[in-house]
From TrEMBL:
Keywords: Metal-binding, Zinc, Zinc-finger. The keyword Zinc-finger applies. It holds the Pfam family zf-C2H2. This is C2H2-type domain-containing protein. It comes from Willisornis vidua. Residues 19-48, 49-76 form the C2H2-type domain. SUPFAM superfamilies: beta-beta-alpha zinc fingers (SSF57667). InterPro entries: Zinc_finger_trans_reg (IPR051061), Znf_C2H2_sf (IPR036236), Znf_C2H2_type (IPR013087).
C-alpha cells in the first residue's frame, strides 16, 4: 500500500505586480494601485512643513523655522 502525494506545484507569481511606493526609504508594496495612491498622501503630508501664519510650505523644518522668525520679529541680522 503506497500513497503517493503529489506535491510541488510550481510557484507562480500572483497576477498583477505589486505596486511599490517610489519614495526613497519606504518601498512599501500594495497590490492595488488605489492603495498606493492613498499611501502616497502620507509622504506629501510628512515632507512638507507649512507656515501656519502665511501658508508658505518648506521641504525642511529648518527652513520653516527660519521663515517663522519673519513673523515673530526675531529676525537675525541680515
Ligand atoms: Zn511609502
Ligand atoms: Zn509664514
Amino acid at each position: 500500500m503506497t500513497l503517493v502525494h503529489r506535491k510541488g506545484r510550481p510557484q507562480v507569481c500572483p497576477k498583477g505586480r505589486p505596486q511599490v511606493c517610489p519614495q526613497p526609504g519606504c518601498g512599501k508594496r500594495f497590490y492595488l494601485a488605489n492603495h498606493l495612491r492613498r499611501h502616497l498622501g502620507v509622504h506629501s503630508g510628512v515632507r512638507e512643513f507649512t507656515c501656519d501664519t502665511c501658508g508658505k510650505s518648506f521641504k525642511r523644518k529648518n527652513h520653516l523655522e527660519v521663515h517663522r522668525r519673519t513673523h515673530t520679529g526675531e529676525t537675525p541680522l541680515q
